[in-house]
Amino acid sequence: IKIKTSRDIVDYFMPYMRDAKKEIFKVILLDGKNKIIKDVTISEGTLNKGIVHPREVIKEAISESASALILLHNHPSGEPEPSQDDIEITNRLISACELVGIRVLDHVILGDNKHYSFYNEGLIKEG
């Protein structure tokens, strides 16, 4: 599957993640043509909090030779608006990935049949 927009991510992953009772944080690893290499679950959290370490994301991206990635997680509450923690971890991951030459294209949060895209909202500039 080739990723062109956040809608592609939503259409592909929403059926698998929409009913999750815990927050699941995934990284979708992409090749140079934005085709999915694989998706990796980085953490499964509690009802409303996941724990994400930049080194886990970078380790996976480097081991699969990804040139870009998309961050993805769900909000079991159904509301996809990002929390302050979501914004902070996104910025930390972007900074960490920049150091090793991996582009973060988007961070998509899935809610109850709605989603939030950091890229579409202007919070991520395409690298």
Map the helices and strands.
Blueprint lengths: L5 H12 L6 E7 L5 E9 L9 H10 L4 E7 L9 H16 L3 E8 L4 E3 L10
Parallel strand pairs: 3-4
Antiparallel strand pairs: 1-2, 1-3, 4-5
Query: Strand order within the widest sheet?
Result: 2-1-3-4-5
Q: What is the tally of beta strands? A: 5
Q: What is the CA–CA distance across the termini?
A: 21 Å
What series of H and E elements makes up the topology?
A: HEEHEHEE
**Percentage of residues in DSSP E strands:** 25-35%
Poorly predicted segments: none
Rg, alpha carbons: 13 Å
Anisotropy-based shape: globular
What percent of the residues sit in helical stretches (DSSP H or I)? 25-40%
Mean pLDDT rating: 92
- Number of alpha- plus pi-helical segments: 3
The structure class reads alpha+beta
Profile the largest sheet. Answer: 5 strands, mixed
Assembly status: single chain
Describe the structure.
The protein is an alpha+beta fold and 127 residues long. The chain has 3 helices and 5 strands. The chain has a 5-stranded mixed beta sheet with strand order 2-1-3-4-5, with helices on both faces. Strand 3, helix 3 and strand 4 form a beta-alpha-beta unit. The longest helix is centred in the C-terminal third of the chain and has 16 residues, at 84-99. The protein starts with 5 loop residues before the first helix and ends in a 10-residue tail after the last strand. The model has no long low-confidence stretch (mean pLDDT 92).
